[in-house]
Each structure stands twice: as structure tokens, then as C-alpha cells.
Specification:
With 73 residues, this protein is mainly alpha-helical. The chain has 3 helices and no strands. The longest helix has 14 residues. The radius of gyration is 12 Å and the shape is globular. InterPro entries: Bact_HTH_transcr_reg (IPR050679), Tscrpt_reg_HTH_GntR (IPR000524), WH-like_DNA-bd_sf (IPR036388), WH_DNA-bd_sf (IPR036390).
Length: 73
């Protein structure tokens, strides 16, 4: 997904939406951990803070995330 840096939707919301879209398209299973901050930075060219906010938004919605200390689900 290409983020629209000049669009009205904040970048972190666009990055979070991409993960939701991947779940709907069955690229990610519903209980599979969402991509890590590092993955989001690499895949979207987003700043670390943008990725952090996207992950926090998805976690707040109840999406499982990777364990930050181990780096694995």
C-alpha cells in the first residue's frame, strides 16, 4: 500500500488501515500478530513514531502484536 503523505488521513491511520485490509484479504489471519514497528517502517518508509502510533491503534482495537522483548509472537 502506498501512503498518501498529503492526504487528509493521518499517516499512522493509513498504515493501520493497511494491516486491517491485509486481515480482510486473508493475507494475515485474524489472530496472527500485526506487523512489528520495524516491518511497518521498512514497508512504508514511515517514521518510527508513525509506525508506533499505528501499532498502538491496532492494539487498542484488540489486534495481537508481537512481543517487543522477544521479537516473536
Amino acid at each position: 500500500m502506498q501512503v498518501d503523505r498529503f492526504g487528509p488521513t493521518p499517516l499512522y491511520q493509513q498504515v493501520a488501515q493497511e494491516s486491517r485490509d491485509r486481515i480482510r484479504a486473508a493475507e494475515l489471519k485474524p489472530r496472527e500478530p500485526i506487523p512489528s514497528e520495524s516491518d511497518l517502517v521498512a514497508n512504508h518508509g514511515a517514521a518510527r513514531e508513525t509506525a508506533r502510533r499505528a501499532v498502538a491503534l491496532l492494539r487498542d482495537e484488540g489486534r495481537p502484536s508481537r512481543c517487543p522483548s522477544a521479537g516473536h509472537p
